[in-house]
Every structure is written in structure tokens, then in C-alpha cells.
Design goal:
Layout: E1 3-5, H1 16-20, E2 26-27, H2 34-37, E3 42-43, E4 63-65, H3 75-85
Antiparallel strand pairs: 1-4, 2-3
The structure holds iron/sulfur cluster (SF4).
Iron/sulfur cluster binds near residues 3, 48, 53 and 54.
């Protein structure tokens, strides 16, 4: 299980979630070069410990536990995971 960052993050990239993640599995962070070029942030499903700390921090409600990702944004589960596969 993992948490997933979805559509509302696009162009917002608030990054409040990054500060609260205990395992630093949300990237790119504001000090990484990809922050400028990526349209959203992503959660690494291999590292996420499913703690839920990030979800309430998001000002645009973009973060969901995997099984509660709205149907229209289900593709974001793969979008998050794929970003780490190409790193
Ligand atoms: Fe990090 Fe916890 Fe959010 Fe997973 S659920 S991305 S471990 S803050």
C-alpha cells in the first residue's frame, strides 16, 4: 500500500507534504533540480510506509491512500510509481 499524489498537485507543487514525510519519499523536493521541470510531486511506493502524515498537509487535497484514489485519477498511482522507475 502507498499514498498517491493526484491531479490537483499539477502546477501547484506546494510541497508541504515533503516536510512531514518521515521517510523522505516525496520528490522532487524544492531543492532538487527536477522541481522546476516536473508538473507535480510524486510518492515513491517502494519507500512509503503508509503513515498518512502527508494527506492533511496538502492544501489542494491531492493526496490519497491508494485504495481511496478517486476513479477519475486512478492513473496517478502508476504515474507516481513510474516516475521513480525512470530515476
Ligand atoms: Fe511519506 Fe507517510 Fe505520506 Fe507515505 S504516507 S508519502 S510515508 S508522509
Amino acid at each position: 500500500m502507498t499514498y498517491v499524489i493526484t491531479q490537483p498537485c499539477i502546477t501547484v507543487k506546494d510541497a508541504s507534504c515533503v516536510a512531514v514525510c518521515p521517510v523522505e519519499c516525496i520528490h522532487p523536493t524544492k531543492d532538487e533540480p527536477e522541481y522546476a521541470t516536473e508538473s507535480q510531486l510524486y510518492i515513491d511506493p517502494e519507500t512509503c510506509i503508509d503513515c498518512g502524515a502527508c494527506e492533511p498537509e496538502c492544501p489542494v487535497d491531492a493526496i490519497f491512500e491508494e485504495e481511496f484514489v478517486p476513479e477519475k485519477w486512478k492513473n496517478f498511482t502508476a504515474i507516481n510509481a513510474d516516475w521513480y522507475k525512470k530515476r
